[in-house]
Amino acid sequence: MTTMLKTQHCGTLSKANVGETVTLNGWVQRRRDLGGVLFIDLRDRSGIVQIVFNPAFSGEALAVADRARNEYVLAVRGEVVERDAETVNPNLPTGEIEVRIKEIEILNAAKNPPFFIEDGIEIDESLRLKHRYLDLRRPEMQRTLMLRAKAAKIFRDYLDENGFVEVETPILINSTPEGARDYLVPSRVHPGEFFALPQSPQIFKQLLMVSGMERYYQIARCFRDEDLRADRQPEFTQVDIETSFLSQDQLLAMMEKLVVRLFKETAGADIETPFQRITYADAMGKYGSDKPDLRFGLELQDVSDIVAESGVQVFANVIKKGGQVKALNAKGCAAWSRKEIDDLGVFAARYGAKGLAWMTYKDGELKGPIVKFFNEQELEQLKQRLQAEEGDLLLFSADTKKVVADVLGNLRLKIGRQLGLIDDSKFKFAWVVDFPLLSYDEEAKRYVAEHHPFTRPKEEDMHYFDTDPGQIRAQAYDLVLNGYEVGGGSMRIYQREVQEKMFATLGLSKEEAQEKFGYLLEAFEYGTPPHGGIAFGFDRLVMLITGRTNLRETIAFPKTASASDLLTGAPGPVDAKQLEDLSIRLALKQPSAKA
Amino acid sequence: MTTMLKTQHCGTLSKANVGETVTLNGWVQRRRDLGGVLFIDLRDRSGIVQIVFNPAFSGEALAVADRARNEYVLAVRGEVVERDAETVNPNLPTGEIEVRIKEIEILNAAKNPPFFIEDGIEIDESLRLKHRYLDLRRPEMQRTLMLRAKAAKIFRDYLDENGFVEVETPILINSTPEGARDYLVPSRVHPGEFFALPQSPQIFKQLLMVSGMERYYQIARCFRDEDLRADRQPEFTQVDIETSFLSQDQLLAMMEKLVVRLFKETAGADIETPFQRITYADAMGKYGSDKPDLRFGLELQDVSDIVAESGVQVFANVIKKGGQVKALNAKGCAAWSRKEIDDLGVFAARYGAKGLAWMTYKDGELKGPIVKFFNEQELEQLKQRLQAEEGDLLLFSADTKKVVADVLGNLRLKIGRQLGLIDDSKFKFAWVVDFPLLSYDEEAKRYVAEHHPFTRPKEEDMHYFDTDPGQIRAQAYDLVLNGYEVGGGSMRIYQREVQEKMFATLGLSKEEAQEKFGYLLEAFEYGTPPHGGIAFGFDRLVMLITGRTNLRETIAFPKTASASDLLTGAPGPVDAKQLEDLSIRLALKQPSAKA
């Protein structure tokens, strides 16, 4: 190994170092030979500096340097000198100096990399993932990983200061009763039995509250074996938090301060508190989403009352069946072509719309195929409800509440984006609160927990347990940012009689509850404090802070949408002996069955 | 939920708070009724305070409080008052005050716990693990978890300050070629394929060095599916560190400062640097162990040269066969009974000893069954070599080097403990260096890597590749503390020609190397910097800092020696449907085959 180990980092050199002899270690970013003088941009984690080999002062080092190609690893020693005024590079932080090299050692050679090591490359992502170790050399990837580390530190520092104790919970846990998305791990010691990887540390953090730890956190790896989308990974990181003896308001206020600090120290953004709070009902009503993007308006309007008696049969039918008709005013879009409006219909169909009715406001009146079915008064009411003005395009969705919300919520986002209503430099936070505690599962003919069966109902809704459980609102909250859910949690049930009511409402007998949640129920009987918590989606927060749209850009070694690691080839086949040791064998379906 | 949320922590109240009205939340540690006045010790994470219910000032709160039993959760409000001089409790940090309660709410009831919530209980460990949430309420367990969190923070702060970047590496990885101890995770998306859980992030941390991250760390969960011992857990935590562009000496010096800070800030201990360095050869020679407890002497002495020609046939035979004879001087133990010495023989047999020869130094001469086989000169040499004095007991082991080291190394520890030579208040660190790079596997008839195939050989031993590979020492090091290995690592190979030599010596063809380590070898070709690293055993460090002897005491939710979680019952059976989704089925051996 060389004795020429770095005394300085490339990117930190400046005029203050002029005259110093420095030793640098780094990678060749670029080389230029100008009339027998060799210039190399040497790169390390801190940045780039120009080093110079000149027969006048480099001696034998020049010949050695001449063998170096892109991405070679060099150790060099030389003197920092000021550049001539005409060769100063204002685009480079070190551009006022260069280093005249007297000694060099090639620490390692490099094959020509499959893509350039620089920001903003347009390369097939799979090639980047296959050579992730080269992709991570690019400054923007290094900055992202460093920002991620900084964000973790900000979380920890804040939580430490506020009396939260970091506790590690197990990764090898029990499979949950509805563990359809659990990754399973066969046990060698207990043949036929399995561990599961945690989808979250939920049960353990509640047990820590029973343990009297009072305040807990963990930056925890979680696992979910599900069909992947662009913003999901089979393993993901959440900042997991639980506290005893705080009210929901106290906890949310404490978390707001944390988020403010995080965004100030990573993105330089000033976030105002308190964050807007919007009920689940309002979010769905106005934005068609429980994670509304609040950077712009374009709110949905319920027009069911106005259109119910119109001659549009579809509207009338939907309303009779308990559905609704809502509308969106696409301001100034009346001039969109028929093709453009039809495209909106195609888009809407992706979210379940059977059609997309529309009107334009042109030449002082509402126009379009359905206008003829309305009387003057109805049209006037529509104009007022939708604040329609000359040049507007009105879009109508008629269906079940759920479909209407999906269709118009997504149209709202699409049109907002298209109209340039969204300020991408803005971080707009809100708490969505008062989620429903239960939803009715038509198939199973019973209520199911919206969040999980330990979520605490709102005190004032407790009476609905006996009359209309679907009306109960939960002490549950999500933190949304620019249309993304970046955190969520709830206050938990801590009283046995409430827990029993909850289980009974979910259709569980005492025996079933015992079988499914026995150890937890038993724990709850030994003096459980009032408690609640939250989990932040760490990968997604880093993604939003760095202005990315893909979670993979925030993770050092991510998996693809098909849950593979293109670098190492995981997952892969294993030896028959390994399976035998685990008392399992493969049970592959026939290719025919697969097709 | 109550509106009486804590304004103060129980254990922090003092005379400074006298006159204040405080709200406290906590658990009933103990209650005493003295003539109609009720005293409750209220406990939270911070400690205990006495609260008082008296008809004179508590009103209706007294009757409510009277229902409270041990481990009930209370919210109380009242005034802090100074205690009378005669009722001050000097054993309690809050013993100078008490709180006169005016309002109370029972937040939760509690069943009578199966053991007392206090330190130093002598309870069957399985009962504690089954009710871990109660065990963790005990102050010593809470202190341990808080110390663990603090230790993690010290590691992170130091590493952050020194330019290390925290990077999360995957938990779902490839099974390694020799992955006999890998936990496997079947893939749902890729039927018949498996992920493995990492035994360490080794490959990813080296890839991060190839990525130019230069300095990396992670407090990483690792997994090993092996037969468990008292100081092993199926999942464990290591502080994983890797750096580029540092020499071994620079890295070890940097880590020493880290360890010094850790022990100063957690244990209040002053650790001297530089740490002693001892070669593997010396450690094995003098202490019979590669993780010697250096808090005491009692060194082993090689006496092969002295005893080779003696009439003790066993000694002569062993030496002829390439073995050795070593001895240990148990100072002052000549008076041990025959039974006591026989017991040492039984102990030695556990480590492979076929017998344990001995002599005593009594009445000015060596005595014992084997003395008659030695001549005067040999006896004199033995006395001198072993610095034998009146009253000493000399113990001899004759066998292969390995067995002799095991036998006498363990006898040394046992006798050192028995003689009170070990100062338990002392933290004695040392680096064991110059481990052998390779060992010869007699069965496979080839060399195998002692550490892993990427460990860098010492420069000055490189020539042995062509002559005697067993002689090559590695740039590998372990950190030992009081007889435990608490860390270990190595400089890694970064030059292709060295890596190829290494693989060839391990008997790997180029094709095999490619098949086993292809993606890593390819990565190494794109400009790999010199790098190396270390991993600290975090659980074990916390165990030693807190003076425990059992890793389970340092982990919130540990598993038993048979890799079970007694609290949740993990691992457990899963649904047939889950297995079908994963394309596996059980292949349990017949009970008869099992017996």
Descriptive report:
2 copies of one chain form a homodimer. The first copy, chain A, is α+β, with helices and mostly antiparallel strands and 595 residues long. Among the domains of chain A are: 15-108, Nucleic acid-binding proteins (OB fold (Dihydrolipoamide Acetyltransferase, E2P)), CATH 2.40.50; 296-422, 2-Layer Sandwich (Gyrase A, domain 2), CATH 3.30.1360. Helices cover 29% and strands 24% of the residues of chain A. In chain A, strand 14 and strand 15 form a beta hairpin. In chain A, helix 5 (139-161) runs antiparallel to helix 7, helix 11 (338-350) packs across helix 13 (401-418) and helix 14 runs antiparallel to helix 15 (510-524). Chains A and B meet through helix 4, helix 5, strand 6, strand 7 and strand 8 of A and helix 4, helix 5, strand 6, strand 7 and strand 8 of B. Strand 23 (584-586) of chain A pairs antiparallel with strand 23 (584-586) of chain B.
Secondary-structure topology with pairs:
The structure is a homodimer of 595-residue chains.
Chain A: E1 21-34, E2 37-44, E3 47-53, H1 55-58, H2 61-65, E4 73-82, E5 97-108, H3 125-130, H4 132-135, H5 139-161, E6 165-166, E7 184-186, E8 194-196, H6 202-210, E9 215-223, E10 235-244, H7 248-267, E11 276-279, H8 280-287, E12 301-302, H9 304-307, H10 313-320, E13 324-330, H11 338-350, E14 357-362, E15 365-367, H12 376-385, E16 393-399, H13 401-418, E17 429-433, E18 438-441, E19 446-449, E20 476-481, E21 484-491, H14 496-505, H15 510-524, E22 531-537, H16 538-545, H17 576-581, E23 584-586, H18 591-594
Parallel strand pairs in A: 3-5, 6-9, 11-17
Antiparallel strand pairs in A: 1-2, 1-4, 2-3, 4-5, 7-8, 9-10, 10-22, 12-13, 13-16, 14-15, 14-16, 17-20, 18-19, 20-21, 21-22
Helix pairs in contact in A: 5-7, 11-13, 14-15
